[in-house]
Structures are given as C-alpha cells and as structure tokens.
C-alpha cells in the first residue's frame, strides 16, 4: 500500500465523522471518497457499515471503473457514481454523497435552491441545481451528476428524489460543500416558508463568488 | 440464563442508545425488544426507566403472552403489543416503538407518508402506512400493527394519534427501520411544506426495493 | 444545613442538566426549584449563572415569600413565581420554568395545545392550557400559573408571550412535565403545519390519563 | 504580549466553543472578537480555520483599521466590519458575526423580528432590526451595522441576505446576544408559521427591558 493510500484511508475516517458532526447522515447512509493522486484509483467507504465501525483499514480502494482493488469489504453501493465522476472530471479529487434533510427536501420537489444568501454566493456562485432522476445500478447517476455540474460553478447537485452529490479538489473540499449545501438549503427553506425572498443581484453574486474563491482563508 | 438471553440483554442496551443517538425518543418513551431464538420468549425494556439507567440486568424477559418470566422490574407498558406481534408474525425477531417527532406528526393527521425518496423505496418499498387508533391495555394495538403490516413491504406502521412501531428480522433491523422512518418522515414533511412533491413511478420503486433488499451491504 | 437540603442541591444540578440535555434552554434561561419537605423553604437556581457553572453549593435556599435564606448568590429572577406556587399549592414539590421553543411558540399565539396524541393524554390528561400575560416583578406570574393549573389535569401552563411553567409532586416530576410539554408542543405543531389534526375522543383521553397516572412505571 | 491580550486569546477560544454549542455556526463560518482594553487593538479569529483547531495562539491581533499586528495567520475575512464597529462605537468591547439559521432566514426576507416574547423585550428591548445589503471588501458592512445599531436598544442586527452581527460591552455579552438572537428568531418564526402573533404593548416592553438591564443576574 502506498503512503498516499494509507493517508487517504485515515483522512476518510475523519471526514465521515464530519458528516455525522454536522448532521448530514443517519445510520449508514452517506459516503465520502478520495482520488488517489497520480493513480487511476480512489478510496471509498465500504457498504452498509456503521459510522462507529469505520476504521482506516475498513476503507476500500477501487479503480475508476468501480472495481474493488484493495480491501476486505464490498465498496459503497454508490461506488459506480463516484467512479463515473472521477473518470469524467479529472480536476475532481473528492466526492461526497448524502441524503441530508433540507437539501433532499428541495430535490423531492425538483427545485433548485435560489441564491439569496451571501454565503451561498461565496461557496456556490449562484443557485444549487437539480439533476435528473436516475436509478442506481448503472452509470445513470454518474452521468446525471457530471451533466449537471460540468461548467457550473456549484460543487453540489440535488439529484431528483434522491439526495446530494458534491465534488471538490479534495475530499475535504467536497465535504465542506456538502456541509454548506445543507446549511443554505435549511436557511433558504426556512426563510421562504414565511414569505417571499429578496434576490441578490447577479453582479453582486459574481463579485462575492470571485472574492471568496480567490481571497478567503489562509494563503 | 441462557447465553442467548445474556447477549440479547447486552444488545438491547446498545440499541436503546441508538434511539437516543438519532433523536427518536425523550425521557423514558420508546422501547426495543428482541425475540429469544428458538424459545417462546422475548427480552424488552423495563417500564419507566431512564435511558441512562438501562443495564443488561435491568432488561426483562417475557413469554409470548407478555407475562414477566425473568427480571426484577415491570416490563414496558407496551409489552402486550410487542407480544402480540411475536405471536402473530413468526418471522419477526425484533420490535421497536417510538414517538419520534415527524413520524408521529404524520400519524396525528392519519396520513401515510408518500414514497418520494429513493431511500424510502429502498427501505420501505413504498409508502409508510397508517394503522388504526387503539387504546393501550389489551391486544388492540398489537392487532392494529399486525393487520397493517401483514403482507405489506413496509417494516414501519404509523399508529394513528400515537407513534411508530417497526419490525425486523432482528432487533437491530427494527431499530434501523425506526431510524429510517423518522428520517424520511422528516424529509418528506419538509419537502411538502413548500410545494407539491414529485412522485416516483411504481415500477422504479419496485426496482429500487428489489435491489436494496438483495444487494446492499456486506454479503 | 439539613441533609434534605444538601440532597436537593445535588438533585437540582442533575435536573438542570436534563433541561440542557433535552434542548429546553439556552444560555442561562430556565430554572428548576424543589420544595424542602416539611419546611417552608425551597431550593432554586441562582440568577444568571451558566449551566456549566452550576454546583450544589451555588444553589440558593429561599423561604416561601421568595426571600434568600441561604446561599451566596441572588436567587433566580423567577423566584417570586416559584414561591407563589409553593404557597398556594401545598401538593406541589417542584416547579420548572423554561422558554422551550415550541411550547413558547404556542404561547406567543395565545393558543392551547390540543390533545391529539396518546402520549399527551397520558401525561397532561387533555390540552395544555394558556395562562395570562403577566409582567415580572410582583405576584402576577405566580397568580396566573396557579389560577390556570388549579383543578386542571395538566401540570404545564403556557404563560402568554413568555414560556412554560410546570409543576409536579417532585422537582423530577416537574422536569419530566417540561420535557414532555416541549415534545408534544413540537410534534403537534409539526403535525398541524401540513393539515388538520384528528382529535382523540374525550372518553379515550380520560381512559388513557387514568391508566397512565395509575399503572405506568415501576410500582 | 500584554497579559490582557493573552487572556482575551484564551477567552475567545471558549466563546467560539459557545457558538458551536448553541448551534450558531457550521464549518468555519462565524467569528468573535474582543477589544483590548485601553489600546487601539482587538483580538479576532483567524480566517478559514476549523473550530477544532482554534487555540489561544491561533487568534490574531489587529489595529482598529483591521491591519494585522500580531499573529501568524490571516485575520477573519470579516475583520474590516469588526474594526469599523470598534472605531465608531467606543462603548463596544466585543463583536460577534454568525449566519445562524433562523436569524439569517429573517434577513433573507429583509424582515425585522417583532417583539412578541418577554425574553426578547428583556434582551433586545423591542424588535431586532434589519441592516442594509452590503458587499464584503470595504467599510459597507461596518457602516450598515453602526447605522442600524446606533441609538437602538437591540445589540443585534440582521444584515440583509447575509447574517447577524451582535455587539456588547464584552465579547461574552456579544456572544450572549448572538445566542439569544437565534433563540428568539427561531421561536418567533415557529410561532408565526401557524397563525398571527399577539403583540406585547410597548409600555410593557419598556418595563421588561428596563428591569432586565438593571436587575437581572448577580450584582
């Protein structure tokens, strides 16, 4: 096992903990994966294992067709979708899938989340879009994710009647996008439930997005 | 005490912890029971005891008429309902009862939860049905559970103006059903509160249910 | 200090922890008191102290006029209301006050919580009533509590535009009533937000209340 | 480093923990600052650092123009707004910024929170006002905060489509205002979602505010 895979296995335990900490998942739903830099491989959660039982060793390694390469357990049932994204989007280093409550609620109405918060302009650069309804079992989900997010600012897509997929340069960035997606899904839902929302002008959304992507955080 | 009962007593402590962890219960409400394999017995939570005070020793063993067979405390006030289910449904190995918030809210309107999420198709195979209003004190609740769930895909029933009962091959499976029931009750409630929901076609529900029951998790 | 007061001081630390655990209070809002058996005294939380800093020693003892009798800190600003209840209702051994979210929301509309859940019939024996609007600083709040709860089955009153007061034979019973009050306030709110509620017939409410008060729990 | 700055760095770790504890922030959003008594300086959270990684040493010191004076990390991206408040309002000793869910939801509709709870009259002395929409990057946010809160009883302002800023004599007082702001934002939102609210008469609001500011807590 290369050092890199070893480190990614450890990172994934901590990142799955973040899904729990911020309330994005229950029971065994939800999964995080990380591309192995420089190799046609990614590391992902095993299928149907409780968050309490996740260890670095329990994580599994797959090739970009989703075939198990290393590990004792079956990979996540969402592995094909992760694999498709890594094949189609070489800039993506991490993928997250959750059924987080408010984001999934928007998806059950097939409705994009409108950009009415500066924090949403920062992270998503506009609305969070809806992807198609797709069954598990082939590449339909992966294709829906890639078709929706390619050329879109948002790192998050609401797959219709299903849940959220997020992408990022790293698994940590994808987890951050999943956390922020649920946060804005919740706030915008609550806001709209008592009356109309005030939109943010597109030119202001653009300014906020540009600044956040280039200035925020530690250099 | 047989090994089997000893193990079930320990398992039940951990499973009641799961009810707390996923926010399904407050104070002393809610209970889990497990059938003793190969015997006409089940193990269940004692009545009115705080979750913090639950120990393997505090769990009680009842026969399938709900009579106390082993243990120092009175069995849960819901014991008769659990017992009726074990008598009528020999395939059931575990029963859970909660007043989890969103599921109970659907029950107070007497409304089934429509299947608009793929996760709901996976676990419940369609809508989560409503059972009759029934008073505690005889077999009415048990009969209502069994009449509603017999021949139904859903392992969960919303007993009208009351709360949720779930069944499973094991107590752990019944707890999982209770956790997923509240999760989808919450998501579908929130989704519908801002507009109409998009249904999932029955043929797609069938495909999802079939796949999840036969493929998901570790073999 | 009598043994009894020493024990009550310790109990009150644990009972305030329950207010936090079940999400009934933020910051320093909310307080629990306990009557000293056989004496015209009660023990109560000090004013404006964080829950993390509460110790048995920080609790204060007051007489039934609300005057500080023992302790280094000022008693809760709600002490006069607690004192009034102890003077007027000799059967009361504990009083709790919170601004728990859903119960307080009902109070801001001046609306009683209708009895549409069997758990509510069990604990409250019917609706949870609204008390009058009253300012702090004299006996108005105490009088409003006593006028509303005297001869009423409910151990909880929603003081208009303010929050919840609960009573019980012991401080623990009053805390339980506060926990259950918020739980049913939340569930009934959520239920009603998507459509009309199904009422429970009064004769069934009566049966449930009678059974729960006389049969539930350990003998 | 003066003793005073050392103490403030430690205090800020604990106060950021309070933002997490009371559910006001996710990921790295939200920040607390404290003026250094007697100096034209304040201590503030570094930008984009996780709450788990915050230590006294990671906090940074800025002058009142928002320039970094001491510390290894970049200051919060909201530093300019904090600095403007300290320059314009000499009585302010602490500033807090969050995107707490319910308060931010009110801001996305551009709607002030009406004073319908006694706890709100106590802490805010009336409604919680809305400030203007303002982009990050210059003094617009700071000016909007100061213009809204100057001469207003409320220590909290809902910046439109953005989130909450609170002020206080100390950083702890500003954190308390942020906690109470979210608490009343949530309760009033929930109350209004099922019907009209009962207002509190202005003369009663005045009495409550006066009493709470002068009597509550330990002397």
From TrEMBL, chains A, B, C, D:
Q: Does the keyword Flavoprotein apply?
A: no
The reaction(s) annotated as catalysed by this protein in its Swiss-Prot or TrEMBL entry are: L-ribulose 5-phosphate = D-xylulose 5-phosphate
Class of this enzyme: isomerase
Q: Which GO terms describe its biological process?
A: pentose catabolic process
Ordered alphabetically, the record's keywords are: Metal-binding, Zinc
The reply to whether Metal-binding figures as a keyword in the UniProt entry is yes
Lineage top rank: taxon: Bacteria
Question: Could you give one GO CC term from the UniProt record?
Answer: cytosol
Please state every residue range assigned to the domain named Class II aldolase/adducin N-terminal: 10-189
Which cofactors, if any, are listed as required?
Answer: Zn(2+)
Q: What is its EC number?
A: 5.1.3.4
Q: Name one GO molecular function term.
A: aldehyde-lyase activity
Q: Which family does it belong to?
A: Belongs to the aldolase class II family. AraD/FucA subfamily.
What protein am I looking at?
Answer: L-ribulose-5-phosphate 4-epimerase
Q: What is the species of this protein?
A: Phytohabitans rumicis
């Amino acid at each position: 096992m290369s050092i890199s895979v070893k480190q990614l296995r450890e990172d994934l335990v901590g990142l799955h903990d973040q899904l729990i900490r911020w309330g994005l998942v229950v029971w065994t739903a939800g999964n995080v994966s990380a591309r192995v830099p420089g190799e046609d491989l990614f590391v992902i959660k095993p299928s149907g294992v409780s968050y309490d039982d996740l260890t670095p060793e329990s994580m599994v390694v797959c090739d970009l067709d989703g075939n198990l390469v290393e590990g004792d357990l079956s990979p996540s049932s969402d592995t094909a979708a992760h694999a498709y994204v890594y094949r189609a989007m070489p800039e993506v280093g991490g993928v997250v899938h959750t059924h987080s409550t408010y984001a999934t609620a928007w998806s059950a109405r097939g409705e994009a989340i409108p950009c009415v918060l500066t924090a949403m302009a920062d992270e998503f650069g506009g609305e969070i879009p809806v992807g198609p309804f797709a069954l598990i079992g082939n590449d339909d989900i992966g294709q829906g994710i890639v078709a929706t997010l390619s050329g879109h600012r948002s790192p998050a897509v609401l797959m219709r009647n299903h849940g959220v997929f997020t992408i990022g340069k790293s698994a940590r960035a994808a987890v951050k996008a999943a956390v922020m997606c649920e946060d804005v899904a919740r706030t915008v839902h609550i806001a709209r439930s008592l009356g109309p929302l005030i939109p943010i002008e597109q030119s202001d959304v653009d300014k906020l997005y540009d600044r956040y992507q280039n200035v925020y955080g530690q250099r």
